[in-house]
Amino acid sequence: MKQYAFGVDIGGTTAKIGLFETKGKLIEVWEIPTRKEEKGRYILPDIADEIEKKMLEKGIFKSQVEGIGMGVPGPISPDGSVLKCVNLGWGVFSVEQEMTKLTGLKAKAGNDANVAALGEMWQGGGQGYKNIVMITLGTGVGGGIINDGHILPGMDGAAGEIGHIPMRDDEEESCGCGKKGCLEQYASANGIVRITKRYLKKHSEIDSVLRKKESYTSKEIFEEAKKGDKAALHMVDEVGKMLGKALAAISCVVNPEAFVIGGGMSKAGDILLEAIKKYYKKYAFHAARNTTFKFALLSNNAGIYGAVKLVLE
Asked: What is the distance between the alpha carbons of residues 217 and 219, in angstroms, rounded to a whole number?
């Protein structure tokens, strides 16, 4: 094993780059703008230039670098090809081959959510486990599955798209994916706000502090629930039910040792976790009820940690 590796998390606005020791220590992290013009043709050359500059600055030779790992916001096939990435303007091409051509270093790529799950297993909330499912509760609901220490990508890199598990047949509004009734429509930060507004409109008899606000966020809903607001408490319970039921279904298929919960909404803490666990135990198959629940620990750096782990494999 060589001494250093680079982990890259490519986002629609910025690309985060981390220089690591291959034992898992993060030495330095920085970001560069993601230039999406001309179908994203500058993204990989910009990253390659940054890595070469950093190696020059630190006096690191290519012979000391294990490789470059990359998390990409789209499906990645097992051979390292991106299968269209709308957020970046990319079509179909091999991200791994292109990065190797640009730098002369080994390159590995994976879907960003899967790669973040790998990072949490390696150095975060899933440390000590080889079989985890990570759920990211943010603007949407993302996820990643780690089976026996490795990413489970699925045929087209779409495994772990937890947010698009169908939950309800009576939903009239569309999800961002085009379907109706996806988990993401109820259990994301945007989702809980949407269903809370719907609930308060339908139940005009229920008194709630939230009614007095012109607009509110998921964070405010959880804050009011902690203060005992009945409507907010009901909605937290509703989100817990949706997530608990979805995770119970997942456990029947992959039977993980741990569910690792991350994303901005996870900062709600125990009030959310207890609601999820209550319904998970209710719906889970008896042999899977003892699955551990953990919070993610690496925050926005999970992707670069996972990208490095990808290279070390």
From this structure: 5
Positive or negative, the CA dihedral 157, 158, 159, 163 is positive
Pairing between β-strand 258-262 and β-strand 292-295 as defined by DSSP bridges: parallel
Give the DSSP per-residue string, 87-108: TTTEEEEEHHHHHHHHHSS-EE
What is the per-residue pLDDT across 135-155, written as a single tens digit (0 to 9) for each?
A: 999 888 989 999 999 999 888
Helices 189-202 and 218-226 cross at an angle (nearest 10°) of: 60
Structure tokens at 214: 């012109």
Are 150 and 225 within 8 A, CB to CB?
no
- Enumerate residues 6+ apart whose C-beta is below 8 A from 34: 10, 11, 12, 13, 14, 15, 40, 43, 88
Q: Tell me how many degrees the CA angle 139-256-118 measures, rounded to the nearest 5.
A: 60
pTM exceeding 0.85: yes
User: Which ranges constitute the DSSP H helices of 203-313?
Assistant: 218-226, 230-254, 270-283, 302-312
Residue 183 CA: distances (Å) to CA of 83, 113, 233, 311: 24, 16, 19, 32
